[in-house]
Structure prediction request, 277 residues.
Amino acid sequence: MHDNRLGEFVNYHHVQELDGLEMLKASYQHTQFSKHTHEGYCIGLIDEGAQSFLRTGSQHIAPQGDIILVNADEVHTGSSAVETGWCYRAIYPTPEMVQDISQDFFHEAGTMPWFPQAVVHDEGLAEQLNLLFDLLLQPKNILFKQSLYISTLAYLLSRYGQSVKILKDLPEAHRKVVLVQEILAAEPEKEHQLAELAAVVDMSPWHLLRQFKKFTGLPPHAWLVQFRLRKSLALLKQGYEIATAAQLCGFSDQSHYTRHFKKALGCTPAQYMAHKI
Prediction:
């Protein structure tokens, strides 16, 4: 058992046998995650303590043994729900990874898997996740890792997942917001201007601001930071130096980059790249 009084720790792993799947093992007591998003889904298991987090506009508490679910691109926060903090492990499968598995459950074209529940109490699934997380950190056993990973996600999707329609069936205002998001994602390093973005989708700047936050949960400038962080993760994995990644992604300097990185991922860029499996 980990004693939170020993301080906070964070270990990021990249599981190469599963297409670089990100796995986090961490203990936090005073760390507070600002509103942020992940490109992938977050599937976590609380090992000790309890976590409090905002998701889908509501505050949730996940105690020891419960499973936390955050959808890809979903705005959320994170902090301790108890004085002693919380210790947890999580994986972050990409939408492509999840969609591949979900094809066996959701047959309708143009849909994405979605977890409506933020916190799940399922002792059997928690036990399986615990086994999976332990296995992912061990050498070799590639076939077993891949099999347990897919079967765990398949169970999670079949029991707790739903499918939601994607872009083509969205209302017009939402489609315009998605287009602006795509522009920001395509060139996150650029200094975008609100008036130019609004002109592209034929909205006034004020209307775009209101609609953007309504549909995404964050204003455009905050999403731009998220897209800059995502691009930087890809560059770090390609072997770029931290300072170079910061510069190429539009951050004013490395300290500014590290500050945003830690507020969103709970670790520094160096900690993120410290462990490669």
Remarks:
- The chain has a mean pLDDT of 90.
- The chain has ten helices and eleven strands.
- The longest helix spans residues 142-160.
- Residues 128 and 152 are 7 Å apart (CA to CA).
